[in-house]
Amino acid sequence: MIPLPSHDELLFAIFGVALLELGILMWFRTFWRKLEDPKSWPEVVVISACAEVFPNLEDRIRRFADQDYPGKVSYLFASRGADSDVTSALREMGAKHNLDCRVIGSEETPKTASGKIVDLLFAMRSVPESARVFVFVDLDLGVGKNWLGSLVRPLIQDDGVGITTASMLYIPVFTNLAGWLRLLWTSSTMPLCALRRNLTGQSFAIERDDFDALKVRELWSRSLLEDLALTRHVRSWEKEIRYVPEAVPWAKDDPSWSETFS
Asked: What pTM value is reported for the model?
């Protein structure tokens, strides 16, 4: 009979594999050319959909307001319903933290695309004409002060880069074994995203001209997952999808076993 590992043995094994995978990602990072800051930074609009008022929502809004981005940046939040609690909460929190933002409540019914995509496309009718870069991020993720600049820099400094992206890193509670398993899962996707140059909808940026040239709006209007559809769409594109470790967002909670495997 094969002996079963103890709780502590499983925990240390998961921790070791997660560190190994993150180490591989950092090793590949050494091969990427370090880019200097551009002489001028383009105007950026950050676009995000929000389906509910979750406990960390105000913290996420505050982190947006604390971004250390040298250029002009505005935020466009897509919610469901013009008079919903989510729409009201986003407007209130944005005003509290002096965030340059607009909250667009969508009333459109999803037919050929997911509800998230329908809300994003509805809100994108209101993007500023002067914005040159579109940045998409899941609103429930935390970001560092340099997140936005790190995503935008390769687009401006390297003509061969068409999309920049960074997948989520999960931060577990130390004593939660289910949380460490989730860390193992999320960290394992990072080297794969970097090697295969996959786009993740958790955080990515694209120049407006490329977004329009690729006809992404039309693509998304008949898609369920915006990142998977766009990744497939640009497989033969001459430009690169660049993974940016410096821009990795994160999430932290105390999940149950069912939540980990859901």
From this structure: 0.82
